[in-house]
């Protein structure tokens, strides 16, 4: 039921985080505000395939 996804920074496009999401409850792509160590700031991270 839960699927492992990768989160990429929208500023530098690096894949920094991996997490899981429940695909039954959330069909659209996940967007979280996380810290990017390459940009050295909190940026929006989007789900990549």
UniProtKB/TrEMBL annotation:
Keywords: Ribonucleoprotein, Ribosomal protein. The keyword Ribonucleoprotein applies. GO terms for molecular function: structural constituent of ribosome. One of its GO terms (cellular component) is ribonucleoprotein complex. Pfam families: Ribosomal_L33 (PF00471). InterPro entries: Ribosomal_bL33, Ribosomal_bL33_sf, Ribosomal_zn-bd. GO terms for biological process: translation. The keyword Glycoprotein does not apply. Belongs to the bacterial ribosomal protein bL33 family. This is Large ribosomal subunit protein bL33. It comes from Halanaerobacter jeridensis.
């Amino acid at each position: 039921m839960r699927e492992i996804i990768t989160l990429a920074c929208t500023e530098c496009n690096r894949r920094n985080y991996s997490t899981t999401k429940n695909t039954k409850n959330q069909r659209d792509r996940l967007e979280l505000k996380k810290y990017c160590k390459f940009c050295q700031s909190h940026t929006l991270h989007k789900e990549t395939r």
